[in-house]
Amino acid sequence: MPTFTAPDGTTLAYHATGDGPPLVCLPGGPMQDSVYLGDLGGLTAHRTLIRLDLRGTGRSAVPTDTASYRCDRQVADVEALREELGLERLDLLAHSAGANLAALYTARHPDRVGRLALITPSVFAVGLDIAAEDRLAAARLRRDEPWFAPAYASLEAITAGRATAADWDAVAPFWFARWDDDAQAFRAAERRQRNDEAAALYASDGAFDPDATRTGLAMFSSPVLVLAGEYDVAGPARVMQEYWGLFPRTELVVQKGAGHFPWRDDPERFVTALAAFLDEADGVSGS
Known about the structure:
Layout: E1 3-5, E2 11-18, E3 22-26, E4 48-53, H1 75-85, E5 90-95, H2 98-108, E6 113-119, H3 132-140, H4 148-159, H5 165-170, H6 181-193, H7 196-202, H8 210-218, E7 224-229, H9 237-244, E8 250-255, H10 262-265, H11 267-279
Parallel strand pairs: 3-4, 3-5, 5-6, 6-7, 7-8
Antiparallel strand pairs: 1-2, 2-4
């Protein structure tokens, strides 16, 4: 397992698997062990995945200064990884909360990012609003599921600001296309893989300046893919359309039948979309 040293002296780890040009992958959570990304549904057949374990997660060390868990302070970690890999420009994939870090890195270092793939991205870094009805409308697409009624009631409680811990557990089926044994095991593993202290500090005061980030992204000239899940209550399609519009050269893919983890819900469809984007000729225009 290779390691490198962040600018503040923290030892960080990454995992390289697959064949083809490197693709740096930033996990979500926030602050979850990158192991949950796996091979991204078989994307390793097309790219060498470089999964970064964010500081304090996976095989990376806990920093001396825990305030460095703040998202904007981790931009320097991504830049240190680029230098470690000896890449003039990196292709970057980020999932969920990891998209906040990817957005900040891209806005700060636009000349060091080749292609940017944002998978069911969180929107904190760019300041988009997700209304309660956006989430509830996505949830109602699942109305025929046997678990729908109690899960929907809990989602209503969450969106109304009156949630209990039990409600957060009850909405878990909405994250997946199939609420089967594999999904339930995956969900249970999330709790073990996340650094809760780090997660609590990730979006703390000062982490994000959405206006500045959006200005930077509007000038980013390289290709961008925003991939949303049709069923994703965390990133409903209407809001993902807004995210798509922040970039001058971008495409939006809404994966049918997918939740928050589209590479698990339909690996073939996910890999086909990612491989087409990553291998596309550089002359593509925005769509």
